[in-house]
Amino acid sequence: MPLWKFTPSAAPDDDRWLDGPIWARVLVCAATSGQARALAARWETGQIEQNPNAPPELVMDYQSAFTDPTLYDLIEVGENGCGNEEVIEADLLRPSQWGPQA
Questions:
Q1: Contacts for 15 with CB less than 8 Å, ≥ 6 apart
Q2: What would the pLDDT profile of 32-43 be if each residue is shown by its tens digit?
Q3: Which of 11, 13, 43, 78 is at a distance of 20 to 30 A from 22, taking alpha carbons?
Q4: Is residue 27 domain-resident?
Q5: Nearest to residue 64, comparing CAs of 87, 80, 81?
């Protein structure tokens, strides 16, 4: 199964981040780039849901930046050999008050 790497493509001060977390690098096993974006978005939403500081209305309306190709570049970096679609590594660049913490 292909391994995909997300890296930020917008500057940290770009308003489109909406004060959300910015991940320096995220590695995802997924069959396609579209599946990688969807999986990373679900994973990030789960990270926010686990934060006790996240207001419930935010969690319900959260729109992950992983779905926006102008915020994250996504490239295939080869075959990993993993059999399941999953996020296998994530490095946080900038936390947010309500998102994952470093």
A1: none
A2: 999 999 999 999
A3: 78
A4: yes
A5: 87
CB atoms within 10 A of CB 62: 17
Question: How many residues can be counted in the chain?
Answer: 102
Rg (CA), the chain: 13
Which residue has 């926010």 as its token pair?
A: 48
84 inside domain: yes
Low-confidence ranges of the chain (pLDDT < 70): 58-60, 96-102
Establish if 61 belongs to a structural domain.
yes
Nearest to 26 by CA among 7, 54, 39: 7
